[in-house]
Amino acid sequence: MKPEKPQPILLKNYTPPPYLIDTVDLDVVLHPTSTRVRATLSLRPNPAARKAGGPLVLDGELLELGAIALDGKALDPAAYKVSPHALTIPHVPDKPFKLDIETFCDPEANTALSGLYRSRQIYCTQCEAEGFRRITYYLDRPDVLATYTTRIEADRETAPVLLSNGNLIKEGRLASGRHFAIWHDPHPKPAYLFALVGGKLAAHKDTFKTMSGRKVDLAIYVEPGKEDRCAWAMDALKRSMTWDEERFGREYDLDVFNIVAVSDFNMGAMENKGLNIFNDRLVLAKPETTTDGAYADIERVIAHEYFHNWTGNRITCRDWFQLCLKEGLTVYRDQEFSADTRSRTVQRIHDVRQLKARQFPEDAGPLAHPVRPASYIEINNFYTATVYEKGAELVRMIATMLGRETFRRGMDLYFERHDGEAATVEQFLQCFADVSGRNLDQFMNWYNQPGTPELVASLKYDARAKTATLEVEQVHGPSPGAPKKKPVPLPLKIGLIGANGQELPLKLANGRDAPDGVLEMSKRVERWTFRDVPSKPTASLLREFSAPVNLTVSHNERQLEFLMTHDSDGFNRWQATQDYAMRLLIGAVKTLRKGERPTRPSAYCGALAAVLADKSLEPAYVAQVLAVPSESDIARVLARDVDPALIHRARRWLRKAIGAELGEHLAAIYEASDDARRYSPDAKSAGQRALRLGALGLLAARGQSADIARVTRHFKDARNATDEIGALAILSALNVPERAEAFDRFYQRWKGDHLVIASWFGLQATSPLSSTLRTVKQLMTHAQFSMRTPNNVYALIGSFAGGNPLQFNRPDGKGYAFVAERVVELDKINPQVAARILGAFRSWRALESARKRLALRALEKIASTPELSNDAREIVTKMLD
Ligand code: B3K
Ligand code: ZN
Fold first, then answer.
1. pTM for this prediction
2. Fold classified for 11-200
3. Would you say the CB of residue 304 lies under 6 angstroms from ligand 1?
4. Which of 95, 329, 339, 435 has the fewest CB atoms within 10 Å, measured from its CB?
5. What is the pLDDT of residue 513?
6. Is 393 in the pocket of ligand 1 (CB under 6 A)?
7. Strand 503-504 relative to strand 73-74: parallel, antiparallel, unpaired?
8. Among 768, 177, 115, which Cα is nearest to 380's?
9. Tens digits of per-residue pLDDT, 81-100?
């Protein structure tokens, strides 16, 4: 029998749930292959439902039903129906009633890591988005909020620690070596925030005093023996708690806050109420094994999950279409936390780099979707860069347009008005409309339309009238399912810079002014005229990247050089360095395509030297300047007829030229900042290391033997993971004998640490050497590699597919074929991870024709696989549409 074609779920079909659940009592008896769950649900008809009465349809998957009783009376099998996805009871009382349901599930067989599973002897759960239905039959939708009491019973020896949401209310010993714990969470929550953990775990404990003086017990649970790696995460947690109190007035609301780190987890972490569960790579840290980048990620994700306590948990989403309501907003909050904790400008550069690298290509290809999608087949496919990162940009634009104070008042109103509710994007926006007195209806276009708008800007100077006129047009190209679009309102932060580099006052001819340099546009074309402009200015547009758009402005190289040295907006000054480099790179691709050699980029290197010499700039910033656009950045700008091999050569050429022209400056940077002090993960020290590694990499790009020797020395002398892995990454791209030696040495040193070994996999998978595919295939048979461990899959296959444009896009198509085979294989084990890896093909239509044909063949192969999961099926279908 052919499986039924899954039907898309549509936003416009939303209806309130016909029944509500007030309380959930769970009794979970943990067993590796047959865990018994007894659930007592108190239900009642929903007074707000459109239709009263009707059947009760509870979601359920992979459950074995034991017994079922309604108001204490066992139900006759004829009174209900069980299907692979639901338990239906056609007739239930039209007043409050109780259901007792007993089910069994198999945690060890659960390789999809959704629901209750067992990873390295530890029982844990992942319920977002729809995993709770694999634990018990339930109304598994975010607008059904209930209070939970959870009793867990297990073997004392193998599972001495038993955790769930909320506060611990009772624990005790039972006969035959067993024990139990009862947890109660007083805050009503949707099922996706439920969590349970059982296993042998060690705790790193601390306490926090909230702003009203309440004491909260904090604990981070990890594999025994790793307690010494929790200090950084704990510190980040306490700083996040303080920051949310100070910046948003949000206080924590339970007596305990627990974090558990597990090794097998589909994504980064999960914000379950009072019991966050983390991928251990985002908790465990020590200088010898954790890079500066990983330290920053841990800090950010700890903060992100903690911030969800208010934006996501106290106020949740009415339906999954509103996912950005919690994710976009919480990313905005974690970005602001990082900006306040680290350097605001460098943080913004980092966030915008990410947005452009991850979200822009998604929005320009077959997987494009609005920040608030209108339809989905598998919701897990929508935890995307668009929902998260573009979603955060939309919140940021509201904050920029309203100003910090009004924005805060809007947030306060949101918390006050919707606390305890499942809300919508419209309700969120209405809070800002209410506090500002502005109509924000047009802003919904940002939430409802896919695609990155383009802003085409020009500045005309009238020397006689001493006026400058800025004209900006917003252009919206077609996206899948959205051929025509409406204009969007946006804040455009600008500056006009005079000939000597001074900032000119922005005086609008119509008498209005532009507070903080922010102009607002809402029509397709807008013009602003500035008066009293003494001479032809240079425009610095989209400062701080005030809107998620592609800006097109015809600056020539002289103007870019001018902005590189004079722009007072740090973000735009950096942007000018990147725009200049991009211009050279695109030129080089064209030159190389003709079989010619690009000319030396001397003027650019001169401007770069001036930036290097500017002692007012922090090292982390200069490191960002030295990082020229990536191969995928170049591919994105080219947008069509993309030849990854030419792009790789162009980028190599530019880096080599910088290394050669600025060799002395770079060597001086490298030598000067040799820091023998003790390692500290703070942003300033990390910035120094980043700058030094940046210089080291550009010097190595020259390829002289002394340069290689310098990298090898750096690798051998390294006293922390940042330097060791940083140097290994440079060596990994070089075809020299030292390379293999370094990889071996690294393996021997770190083979006992699975997190470091993941980096070892990743570095080999991203190497541009032509042997890489062969190496990746070999590594798949390595004793430490398992397709069941998402971190392994992401490090080896994910990095190859998504982080190695040269080798994934091999002209013989073997990269595509290999990844396609892995996707099909993985789909049977873990569909969510398979669908994510498959996303690496998202820009295949932009490739030159020969590669495009080969990529198409690989995608068709996946599509023709009979029993593909909904996850992979939805993605591959969109890719081929
Ligand atoms: N909310 C989770 C992500 C859940 C993903 C489900 N497939 C983590 C986060 O965004 O904070
Ligand atoms: Zn989140």
1. 0.98
2. Immunoglobulin-like (2.60.40)
3. yes
4. 95
5. 79
6. no
7. unpaired
8. 115
9. 999 999 999 999 999 999 99
